[in-house]
Amino acid sequence: MPITPELIIKLFFFSFTLWLGAYLLARNFKKTTLQLTGFGLLAYALALAIELLTNQLFSVILLLPAILWIGAALHLLPEETIWRERFIRIWALTAIPVLILTLLNPWFGIIAVAANLLSTRMVGRLALRSRFKNTFAVLALVALFFTLSTGLMVLPFDFLPRIWGISVLGVDLLTLGILITIWDAFDEGESMRAHLLRSLVAAFYYAGALAALVIIFIALDGELGFTKLLLLTSVITFGILTQTFSSQIQSLLDRLTFSRTSTLSSEREILRTMADDLPRLSPFKLAEVDEKEFARLTRRAISNLGNLPKLATSPLTKLPAVIAQSGENPLDRAHALKALLTESIQRLKPQGDANFGATDEWRYYNALYFPYVVGLKPHTRRTNKEFLDEISLQALEWFQVSVPERTLYNWQNIAAHLIAEDLRSKR
Asked: Has residue 389 got a pLDDT over 60?
């Protein structure tokens, strides 16, 4: 088998979708929208890898990105949306049955295509009232093209040659992934370009160096059989994944190497993560930020109070009060911002000697102090009560018995606005 333009196109989309999917997962695995979009890109890369090796295109695997995108679009909805959780549950319960039905009969894939059209409409409506209007408007347009190209590839039509269908679907998926990255960067108050570009260059530097050796060997031998094609896709995959997940791999190696010195391992991880996250620091000036955006950035910084590397990328590290206490060192700035936020949270505490109360005047202080300063997670089952003091145990019981999760979320938003007003007075 010679190296043809069709093979080069397939390798191109395989490499780029593999990298972008891995980048989204490495960027913030805890964010469900990034997680689902990333896995969707990886599913497309898997379908391409199978097609490269066996010359068979499995429509069920190609349907996975569409199904995962429906979940990602639902998670874009604001948390206060009443029907958000209900629709997410319906999606989670029906995803696998739709895949099984499509495996039995390709025409059942029209269910996922129709659901994608509804998701596209929903994202379009978000563009009318969200603070990310332009991003969501473009996202809705690209999602529409993605839905159409998915339908052409999955349903038993014969309108497009396979290579054209692969290319169109690949372009749509890559554009969706980049738009989701842009949305996440705006949502986190971060810069995207430098971090994304560095990840791309590093991944393809290593993958390209490994692939070049295999291509030279293929050129000398003159034949491209199954074994050599498997070797080529394997080294590209290895190069991209090891570089994109390099921080996570280094953390694993540190835990294995420094198992008896956990302090050294954790300190190295903080420094490494901070160095990796610094290109995300947004260049915009706080003086140009309006009150609503400043409150959103404050809310985001409070939610990252226990994560110094993430806190170091917050635009709030440019506050004069933070700079005055820390100077230019990013780690010092993160510590200074954490101290400033903690001090502002403490000012929400009612007057008196008590450390906890369940009355209305305590709710905003409790909503921020115990989840973010103490680290309580009142609505999860993994809370370890053995390490909690008496006051924290009282607070935990109060949250679990008297404060629903949505109510806590609303209190935290109101309290974050109060903290933002306190910080703005120091600018």
From this structure: yes
